[in-house]
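Incident log, structure service

09:12 report received: a user says their structure output differs between two submissions of the same chain.
09:20 pulled the input from the user's history:
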Amino acid sequence: MLLSPWSIALSLLSALVIALSLLAGITAIKVIRFWDLSSDSNRQIRLENETWLASTLVQYALAFQIISLLLFVLAADQFSQVIAGAMCATGSFTANVYGLPALAVKLVGLFLYGFWIVLNQFDISSENYPLLKQKYIFLLALLPILILDVCLQTLYILKLEPDIITSCCAVVFGESSQSSSNLLGVFSQPTLLTLFYGAATLILTLNYLWYRCNRMFLVHANAAVWIVFLPIAFVAITTVFSSYVYAMPYHRCPFCIIKKEYYYIGLFQYITLLGSVFFGVCVAPISMIVKNDDLQQYLKQFIRFSVYLSSILLVMFIALTSYHLILYRFAGGES
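09:34 re-ran on a clean worker, output below:
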């Protein structure tokens, strides 16, 4: 699999991301040790020029790494065409022990990488760079996660062998499966739908109350609900909504819905879900970190933008996931 175009693209992208991040890590150490905005020494002037370049490169590198999550899932779907027993990305990810951990780290990384990009935008919006040290300390903390992300991805690709017989979604998520990956036994369908729509309604209600009252505790409370909503949404997509997309009650899979025959609806579901959760959650830590007076106006604009955008994306996500369910339950079948 190492010579697959998808593998080569992912590997080259990861190598570029690691190289840029390590170079920026050197700059981060210099900033933490020597940064002094009140100084006009040659070292400070060189450091100011260097930090601008390093921040720009890291921002692009982390954006590429966020995109690599999408490429990784699409690559796994392509790998399933040559792996024995695999019908979709589920089979590819379970073909060795590195697939699902790599996916999990990329998913967590998406939020951390995105948060650094937001932090950087706050920092460069002021000529005094008030968050420079914080963002570079955070970058140094991100480096081990980035390296783990790339290592797991590389090990997954290296250990992927076409002749290994793997289990696919029909087994992993089937009702008779005894696999630990089977999520069907966690909640009954009515309970899961109640949690799903209840959490979504609570989020929209808190966003509306914030719009009316503009109180920060509502933003923090909403961030906690978003964190709970994300795993509920993943389980609901897998065990409830996907079956209606496939028009097959016993076909449950979170990855087949990204295929062309289902009009890539899964991609739009995941993009709106992850986008809404990211903007819903990140306002809470950002509001706690950004205390500078010259950033308060920018912070207010960002919170307003995030609340509106997360609400819009959530409504789009709910519409996309509920469409087939409503069609079957109330219109009696596929259009």
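09:41 both user submissions now match this output. Likely a transient worker issue. Closing.
09:42 reviewer note: Residues 235 and 246 are 16 Å apart (CA to CA). The longest helix spans residues 42-79.
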